[in-house]
Automatic annotation (TrEMBL):
Keywords associated with the record: Antibiotic resistance, ATP-binding, Nucleotide-binding, Transport
Main localization category: membrane
Name assigned to this protein: ABC transporter ATP-binding protein
PANTHER family cross-referenced by the UniProt entry: ABC TRANSPORTER ATP-BINDING PROTEIN
GO molecular function list: ATP binding
Source species of the chain: Streptomyces macrolidinus
Signal peptide: none
Entry-linked SUPFAM superfamilies: P-loop containing nucleoside triphosphate hydrolases
Compartments it resides in: Cell membrane
Stretches assigned to the ABC transporter domain: 19-246
Membrane topology category: Peripheral membrane protein
Entry superkingdom: Bacteria
Length: 319
């Protein structure tokens, strides 16, 4: 993936930020000849050493933004830079690497042969070290075609580490990994960020973003719609979810309360989306026969759904 690699002394640093996107716009033309805007005035600054989750619904502009950061495409307007230089220059200097969901592997080679072959492009690369960090040392003699999807992702991770990148882009990095492998992967990533590496990852696993990201950036319709820690984004969405075992008649009465936005039934439990969970609790305890009452803050997934839905509603306007 990297054309050349400069030694660390040649990696000039002129910007305090790892990545900067300033008012970036990217348009495409579909098969019908119609122009559409994939990224629409997006501005973002990523600090060094951060782990940033990059979230958005399908078609939000995530892939196009990542492609611009990797120098695979250029913006129609606006500015993109990595470590104070153009993305293509940062890539050629070995400062940037990526772990993508598919492709890039030769099925008939063994795991070790794959790493050694690509490691030859990076003089001084620690072949054994990156295999150990990616958790694939025990797979060294296995053909790539015989590896599971999760094992192939770990192999891609090892390859990405060969250049000792300063900025690592991950696209669904733990797809196919089991729970143990996923936690080991993120423990390794965290160690690397503590040494100064910056990580940006796109994922559909909301709990992964919640647990492992220092910062969550949500985009929709090509724009940033939320930016902050997972906890701050959840807190910005007012209200909590209150669930209970309750009779259908009582549930209908509670759902009509002004502090309840909506009510859904899952199995035997009713779940109330409440703007004022304390007021709803008083109603449930004093005016109904509800039992096994539980109160939970909004999940990041619920906040994501609410924020992206609000963004689309605001753009569509009243009907």
């Amino acid at each position: 993936m990297m054309e050349t690699q400069l030694p660390p002394s040649a990696r000039e640093v002129t910007s305090p930020a790892a990545a900067v996107l300033d008012a970036v716009v990217k348009r495409f033309t579909n098969a019908k000849g119609e122009e559409f805007t994939a990224v629409n005035g997006l501005s973002l600054r990523i600090r060094r050493g951060e782990i940033v989750a990059f979230l958005g619904p399908n078609g939000a502009g995530k892939t196009t933004t990542i492609d611009m950061l990797l120098g695979l495409t250029r913006p129609d307007s606006g500015h993109v830079e990595l470590f104070g230089r153009a993305p293509q220059q940062a890539v050629r200097a070995g400062q940037v690497a990526a772990v993508l969901q598919s492709g890039g592997l030769l099925p008939d080679l063994t795991v070790e042969a794959t790493v050694r072959m690509l490691g030859s492009l990076h003089p001084g690369a620690d072949i054994e070290g990156v295999m150990a960090r990616a958790g694939i040392s025990a797979l060294r003699h296995r053909r790539v075609a015989e590896c599971s999807g999760g094992e192939q992702q770990r192999l891609r991770f090892a390859i990405a580490l060969l250049s000792s990148p300063d900025f690592l882009v991950l696209d669904e990095p733990t797809a196919g990994m089991d729970v143990v492998a996923r936690r080991e992967f993120w423990a390794t990533v965290r160690e690397d960020t503590q040494r100064g590496m910056t990580v940006m990852f796109a994922t559909h696993y909301m709990e992964e973003a919640d647990q492992f990201a220092d910062r969550v950036v949500m985009i929709d319709e090509g724009r940033v719609v939320a930016d902050g820690s997972a906890s701050s984004i959840r807190a910005a969405m007012t209200g909590r979810t209150v669930s209970a075992l309750i009779s259908p008649a009582d549930a209908r009465a509670v759902a009509a309360s002004p502090v309840v936005r909506s009510c859904v039934v899952r199995g035997e439990r009713h779940y109330f989306d409440a703007t004022d969970s304390d007021a709803l609790l008083r109603v449930l305890v004093t005016q109904t026969s509800a039992t096994e009452i539980e109160v939970a803050p909004r999940s990041l997934e619920e906040a994501f759904m609410a924020i992206t839905s609000q963004g689309r509603t605001a753009q569509e306007g009243p009907r």
